[in-house]
Amino acid sequence: MKSLPRFAIIGHPNEGKSSIVATLSQNDSVSISALPGETIRLQRFDLRAGDKTIIEFVDTPGFQNPQATLKWFREHESLEGKRVAQFIETHESDPDFHHDCELLRPVLEGSGILYVVDASRPMTAVDTAEMEILRLTASPRMAIINPKSGESRFLESWKNAFRQHFNSVRTFNAQTARYLDRIELLEALKSIDQDWEPALSDAIDLVRLDRRRATERAAEAMVEHLEQSLLCSCVSFLESDSGVEIEKRKLQEQYRSKLEKIERRFREQACDIYSIRKVSIELPENSILAEDLFSERAWQALGLTQKQLAVAGALLGAGLGVGADLAAGGITFGVFATLGAAIGAGSALWKGKDLARAKISQLPLGGLKITVGPNVSEQFPFVQLDRFYLYAQFVSNWAHARQETSVKLTAGDEKKGLTSGWSQEELKSATRFIRAVRKGQGEDVESYGRELRNILVKALEEMS
């Protein structure tokens, strides 16, 4: 066995071979077509950890002439271990066996075999011929059931046939596989040849290390973008009070736009961290993550419970909002209260007037200073953090075989937020970070930021 584990993905056309390659190699550039026979030549895709290739997968064409190929294999039984090499040498110029020669080349080079089947259809004589050819190669091999539908009537007959022809059988849905599903399949590959265990164990350790680094980067991105949201503000100056209302509305829109950009930058970074480059994730209208950050619905579903909020409020400093009012010299306007026409009675946790403030100050040398933000609400940072977390959780378990140009998060993808399940200690750590950011305490921001990042790393790992 070479130091680099290598596997040829083989099977009948349109059974999901390319999907398996895309998900296992975490590569959404793998071409996947609904039309059978689109893969006509070998394509190699590396699974990488950092800058190192740790496993190579070879996407192959489907069998072209399996029954004739099997007939030749049986007629040349005396060649034993030389049958694959002799078959290719004999048929490589024959267009009727072009695909069969192509898919057997990596086997000749020492690749293991992953035979992919959609077990929702009945087995045919062609399938039996393909499995027998692979058995006669005597190469280590695993059968992978790729369930493209929920149909299970034929599953047992497939499994019985697989047991006769393969060293191992696994079910793996390339469209829905999460991180741990991929790890389980890679672990199972050790069982098809004991000699491959050391190389595969090293490769899996590197996959886990790479995953850990990605999780740490995602958590770091959440902390960084939360700090940006907490510090976000807009300022304007006027020579007189003429046009104050117009300027307030202008700043209000700028403030909302800046927060939207912060969240958009985080989502782009999260997709980059988890190598999602071809899919633009589109949020449906009924998604919490598609809701405006300051909508009542978002605040009802995300953030802290009332009990937690009382604790957080005490830790952050009771009367913080009142202090802001007083600091504005009594000339204070609840900017977002003006946006509440579409909002009903409101939840107990949602206080529109506290979400952001437009503060107008008289300058000593004349003129006015108008400021919107930073946000002083106790709940705001936890709602924002939950939105970051839900998005990171979703993309961290993305199956790269999914080829949609846009994807809608479903209700199942967006459970309740993270922060409402926090312990007292976790809540205290988060509030220490929030308070340090708001007070501009640089060293505390760094140290408490590390605490918060560790909490987020643990949460993301538990949801893998």
Automatic annotation (TrEMBL):
Which Gene Ontology molecular-function terms are recorded? GTP binding
Task: Look up the domain of life of the source.
Answer: Bacteria
Q: Where is the G domain?
A: 7-134
State the organism named in the record.
Pelagicoccus albus
- Report TM segments: none
- Record's protein name: GTPase/DUF3482 domain-containing protein
User: What InterPro entries would the database entry show?
Assistant: DUF3482, GTP-bd, P-loop_NTPase
